[in-house]
Amino acid sequence: QEPLVESGGGSVQAGGSLRLSCAASGYSNLKGWFRQVPGKEREGVATVYPDGGDPYYAASVNGRFKLSQDNTKGTLYLEMNNLKPEDTSIYYCAARQRSGGRPLSPRDFDVWGQGTQVTVSS
Questions:
Q1: 53-64 per-position pLDDT tens digit
Q2: What value does the CA radius of gyration of the chain take, rounded to a whole number of Å?
Q3: For residues 89 and 75, what is the distance between their CA atoms, to the nearest angstrom?
Q4: Rounded to whole angstroms, how far apart are CA atoms 50 and 47?
Q5: Is 115 in contact with 34 (CB distance < 8 Å)?
Q6: 69 within 8 A of 77, measured Cβ to Cβ
Q7: What is the pLDDT of residue 76?
Q8: How far apart are CA 27 and CA 87, in angstroms?
Q9: Proportion of the chain above pLDDT 90, given as a percent
Q10: Taking phi first (over 0 means left), then psi (-120 to 50 degrees means alpha), and beta for anything else, what does residue 82 get?
Q11: How far apart are CA 74 and CA 57, in angstroms?
């Protein structure tokens, strides 16, 4: 298993779009995206199983964000549209190695990337 490495963060105005990528080869369980504002708890954004199925989305991003994966490249993507200032956060890629757990609970994920900053200005 390779380390998780995020890329694609940056700054954008409200209403704009960004796409995050995560190199996530070798992880056969649930993986996805989380975010955290300094001083606040980390929260789940979107996760998916490698073998397909509908992704899980947080209510705050459902309909605006789209999680996809390219299993041939071992890459996870998060397309973020109609971004809002409240989406400003550090975004982390994560993978689960244990059995069971809730799909959007950070406590139920075991491997984490370093994070990438997303800033949305009004």
A1: 899 999 999 999
A2: 13
A3: 21
A4: 10
A5: no
A6: yes
A7: 96
A8: 27
A9: 86
A10: left
A11: 20
Asked if 46 and 62 count as a contact pair (C-beta separation under 8 A), the reply is no
The residues, ordered by sequence, that sit 6+ positions from 53 with a Cβ below 8 Å of its Cβ are: none
Residue range 17-32: mean pLDDT, rounded: 94
Cα of 8 vs its chain's centroid, Å: 11
If DSSP codes are grouped into helix, strand and coil, which group holds residue 106? helix
Phi first, then psi: give them for residue 38, nearest 5 degrees: -50, 130
**Best CA proximity match to 78, nearest among 96, 59, 57:** 57
Q: Are strands 10-13 and 116-121 parallel, antiparallel or unpaired?
A: parallel
What average pLDDT score do residues 85-112 get? 95
Distance of alpha carbon 50 from alpha carbon 32, whole angstroms? 10
